[in-house]
Amino acid sequence: MGTAHNNANKGDFAKTVLMPGDPLRAKYLAEHYLENVREVNNVRGMLGYTGTYKGKEVSIMGSGMGMPSIGIYSYELFTQYDVENIIRIGSAGSINKDVHIREVVIAQGACTDSAWAHQYELPGVYSAISSFDLLEKTVHQAKEKNIHYHVGNILSSDIFYHADSTSTAAWSKMGVLAVEMETYALFSTAAYLGKKALTLLTISDSLVNDEPETTASEREKTFTDMMEIALEIA
């Protein structure tokens, strides 16, 4: 079977897929947490794996950077591979002084500066929110594991190097916790297709606090609190 972006066969993916942005984080997770793991996709280096975690079948696949990329992969997983749940496990920049490096943010909803929702031809502005079922399970797991977490609104932006260096201040004033580049598209795609989605983020840097930024290697290998929560609810 396969698609232009995925050479997996029907049945190669579990009903729940964890999606880090970085395919090397997907590889690390699969090799360190899954049993009986097998590679199911490698098109364009966007690595995907399926195995078992505590007896449950789970898949892990990279999403790439930005809404167009996760939009393609999530749409194909939902429509071509019968996936029911996608849990994004990513990194984000804090835009709230109370949200610090390495802390976990559970995205209740996503704001955006993107025109992603124009395709749905809605007579207003669409609010992209998570699956409450997955959100509730995630909060429960975080409490069980005694992990410090935040739940709230995030910003999914199309722009990483923004010409306006003050652009996030207005979002911060509205209580938005962190900025990343994928969740609005994921939540919207899931809603449109009648599926479930959630985003778990680990703060990798802060735009408002003077804290040292994490390295690429640290983001790949040490954001274990978020990874373990996601695996438990998969």
From TrEMBL:
Coiled coil: none annotated. InterPro entries: DeoD-type, Nucleoside_phosphorylase_CS, Nucleoside_phosphorylase_d, Nucleoside_phosphorylase_sf. One of its GO terms (biological process) is uridine catabolic process. Keywords: Glycosyltransferase, Transferase. Pfam families: PNP_UDP_1. The active site is at residue 205. A purine D-ribonucleoside binds at residues 5, 180-182, 204-205. Catalyzes the reversible phosphorolytic breakdown of the N-glycosidic bond in the beta-(deoxy)ribonucleoside molecules, with the formation of the corresponding free purine bases and pentose-1-phosphate. Belongs to the PNP/UDP phosphorylase family. This is Purine nucleoside phosphorylase DeoD-type. It comes from Eggerthia catenaformis OT 569 = DSM 20559. The gene is deoD.
